[in-house]
Structure formats: C-alpha cells, structure tokens
Amino acid sequence: MTIDVSELDGDGGTRRQKALVLHPDIRGNDASRSAEALLAEGLALAMALPGIDVVRGQIVRLPKALPGRLFGSGKVEELKAQIEADEIELVLVDGRVTPVQQRNLEKDWGVKLLDRTGLILEIFADRARTREGVLQVELAALSYQRTRLVRAWTHLERQRGGLGFVGGPGETQIEADRRAIDVQMVRLRRQLDKVVRTRELHRAARRRVPYPVVALVGYTNAGKSTLFNHLTGADVMAKDMLFATLDPTMRAVTLPGGLSVILSDTVGFISELPTQLVAAFRATLEEVLEADLILHVRDISHPDTEAQAADVESILSDLGVGKDVPRIDVWNKIDLLPAEDPLQTVAARTDNVIAVSALTGQGLDDLVAAMGQALGDERRVETVAISHSEGKARAWAYAEGIVQSEEGTDDGPVLTVSWSAKQKRRFESMLTAVVAPPDDES
C-alpha cells in the first residue's frame, strides 16, 4: 500500500527535504492495530518534523526482518529506484532499525535514514522549550547516538594512541567517541539533577498550599492542550499535530464550587515509545505520579481509540501510576462523531466517562462537576469561632474564598464558611485551638 501525500506541501519558504515514510509490516508481529493505521501514524509523526516534505508513505510487507538490511535485496533495489525517481533525501522507517541495518541502507540508497526512535527524538528536540525539557532530550539523544556509532564511523579499523611496541594497538576511534559521549551524559545528568531539585522545591511549596493536582494524560493529539486551554483560559500550543505539547504546563483553576486545583498538561503518549524516552521523561511526568486526579483524554472519534487507550494505560503502569489514583475517562472530539446522537456511544459504557468536545465546549460543565466530586468538593455551610490570635487561619479562609460572613465577638471572630472536607481539615490544622461557636453554648 502506498499513500501519496505530495500535495501536502509546506509553506513554500525555505528549501525542505523530500522524505519517504516506510512502514515494515513483518509477518507474525502481534499488532493491535492494522498496518494501514500504523502507517497513518508514522506519516503524522513525519509531518510533525519541521523542514521536510513527505512525498509518500508505503507499507513494505516482509516475511521476516533480515539482520543486514532489514529488507531483502530485491526490495532494497526496488526502493532505491523509487528514491532516485522522487529525488528523496530522507527515508523515515516507522519501526526499529539496528545500527548495522541503518548504515547499510544509507550506503545502498545514498540518503539519510531515521528509524521511529530517531524521528521522535528529532521532533522532541525541536519542540522542547523548558530547561528540563531540553536537557531530557539531549540526554535521550546521546543515549540513542551511543548505540549508533557503528554507522557514524566507517573507519572503525583505524586506531589512535599507543606506540604499537609498548602497550598494544591503542584506542579505536569508536571507543574514544563513546567515551566522549559518556562524559557528556554525566555532565547532562548533573545539570538535570539541579533542575529536578528545583522542580521538587516547587512541588513541595504546592503541597503546603495544598491544591490538588489534576493531570491530563492521553495519546498524542487526543486534544489535551485544547481542553487545558478551555478549562484554564491559557494559550498553550494546541494544533492538530503529534507532540504539539512536550514540556509540562501548569495553571491554577478554581472550580465552580470554589475548590482551587492545579491543572497539568503533559506530553502525549504514543505506541512503542522509545525506551530512552520513557526513562528520560520520567521526571517530566512526575506531575502524573503526584496527581490527586487523572483525566485520561481520548480521541473518541479515532478508529483506533481502544488501542490508543491501552497504550496509555501500559505507559502509566510502567511509570508506576497505580489504580488507586482516581481517574476520569474524558471522551473528547464528540463533535466529530455522527450527528444523530454522539452521546449514545457513551451511555452504555461506564459511569466514570464524560463525553466532551474541547473545541466547542460541549460537556465541559459535566466534566468540571465530575472533577469536583472526585476531589471531594462537596460543600457544607458551617459556623466556626476562632480566637483573635488565629489571624493566619482567618486570612487563609478569605484567600480560599470560603467565608460567607463574619461576626465579631469579644472572644474572636465567628466565621460562617462554605467548605469541602479537605478545606475544613486544612483550616483546622492551622488552628492552635478550635473554639466552639456561640450557638453550642446555650
């Protein structure tokens, strides 16, 4: 199967490289999605990479992966003819390619080749904005490049160092380069440790507030950033593009019931996420590990929404996020479902599902109400008397917006408050002593 996407040209500005996307469909691979769906995702990844024009995408069916060149000799020659005819400069293989396979194919075709991991790393390198994001990408890229030195050096038989008659043949070029990468990785880890410690200080400050953290997670391009913008009024980059958001973005939001929460937009997940990135971005996803509530945002209009949801759950499990953290399934993009009654697809599923359109705002009131309920935002109106010395607790109550009225007495103010159980516990923890309200004395 071949998909011609040459009409999807860029902005016509600076010169762009022509790219070919190949999806190897290896017989016997247990894939939860069709080869056509996987090719479509590979094309979307390629189009997210700046500076290239994707000419076409093609499924290459293989009985097995060959260790030397991945493809058979006949297929290599056939693809070479296509590459030359279309003047392709970059081949993107949507799958795993070993260093030896990459080196041999680049030599045969005379073009640069990137596998799925290399492509995702290129996208991440272009999108990362925060200091931590940049460091995480550099560290992951070095870890990846360290295994690729075999393709970067064709003179591996050359050696340097040593006099030959004293201590042996000396150090090979590849060993020297690997050692240089190791030194650079150590330096990056030290810098990253400092950044992570700073983020931990910020998290510790938030714990003292404390606002509950609501984390948006989901497959890439599920609409998390659009939903985040709608709920917070922020202006996070929200495009119909894979990995539009890489760095964690956080905003404080006050729910209609008065509960203040911190909403966190996170990097989108994807199937076969490179191992280097799962490890490198663990710190970026720490907001999810500490979340009081997780909103699993799904593109319910996508034909592979079930497989995408399974991928997200698998990655959450790998990150150590347990089932004990409350979750709400947010079925997004219902505006793209058939017009007759899109909510019918939701009704028969589970009570823990909210159907929304982050683009139009449909269903967001129900989502906000579900968030408040999951976080214990059930309000009770109570009267509490405090002494004059409890100014800190009184100021906090006003800052939280829970005070409905105040009456002054000789012993201290009497506050009428509307609060959640969590806010009540927080307020009482700040008091040196709780004074019974006057009504209880009669």
TrEMBL record:
Its main location: cytoplasm. PANTHER family: GTP-BINDING PROTEIN 6-RELATED, GTP-BINDING PROTEIN HFLX. Monomer. Associates with the 50S ribosomal subunit. It comes from Pararhodobacter zhoushanensis. The keyword Magnesium applies. The lineage of its organism: Bacteria, Pseudomonadati, Pseudomonadota, Alphaproteobacteria, Rhodobacterales. This is GTPase HflX. It is found in: Cytoplasm. The keyword Isomerase does not apply. Belongs to the TRAFAC class OBG-HflX-like GTPase superfamily. HflX GTPase family. It comes from the Bacteria. GTPase that associates with the 50S ribosomal subunit and may have a role during protein synthesis or ribosome biogenesis. Keywords: Cytoplasm, GTP-binding, Magnesium, Metal-binding, Nucleotide-binding.
